[in-house]
Amino acid sequence: MRASEVVMSSRRSTAGSRPAAAQTPRGRRSRTPGRARGAAPARRLSGRRLVLGCLVIALLAMFMPSINTGIRQAQQIHALEQDNASTRQEVGDLEKKQDSLKDPEYLQRLAREQQGYVNKGEKPYIVVDDRASAQDEPADEQINKSSRPRPWYVEFADSLKSVGLATDAGRTGADGSGTAGEAAGR
């Protein structure tokens, strides 16, 4: 260091070099009551900060619809990508099935299993299992089965009755017999 720099730095450190407003004697109180020495000053809302805050709020209000639209479109893109992936997989499965349908042995096996086809000279046998059909349906239902279905209005009346919308008064006989269709014809 030079001698002139040393002299200047020593002058800065002396108490006389500070301005009079910044000097506070040790015994004296601070000019701002309630604030400790060295504490940060209380922040005030200046005009610039207020304008800047309003500007940020206005920008957010302007761009929120665009942001919402962007988020919604991103969700739609994701859903469409998933749909495309499932469609690609389905196309792959269908291409495999198409390739297998070109195989004559596979076609012959399908014709035998699903359509009951036989080769020339073979005798087809159809095995009927009476026990399986008897277990599937009760005997009363087998006897009462008719070849023709009932008319739609009778089915409708029975469905109303089973749901409980058709009341007994005025629609059925005094003993509770009859359907809504029969009661309407009286």
Task: Outline the biggest β-sheet.
Answer: none
Shape: elongated
Which bin fits the share of residues in helices? 55-70%
Number of strands: 0
Distance separating the two termini: 127 Å
- How do the helices and strands follow one another from N- to C-terminus? HHHHHHH
Rg, Å, rounded: 48 Å
Strand content: under 5%
Average residue pLDDT: 74
Note poorly predicted spans: 169-176, 180-186
Number of helices: 7
Q: Report the structural category.
A: mainly alpha
Explain the overall architecture.
It contains seven helices and no strands. The model is unreliable at 169-176 and 180-186 (pLDDT under 50). The longest helix is centred in the middle third of the chain and has 55 residues, at 47-101. It has helices spanning 3-13, 47-101, 104-115, 130-136, 139-144, 152-163, 180-184. With 186 residues, it is mostly helical.
Sum this structure up briefly.
The chain is mostly helical. The chain is built from 7 helices and no strands.
Features:
single chain, 186 residues, mainly alpha, 58% helix, disordered C terminus
Set out the fold topology:
Layout: H1 3-13, H2 47-101, H3 104-115, H4 130-136, H5 139-144, H6 152-163, H7 180-184
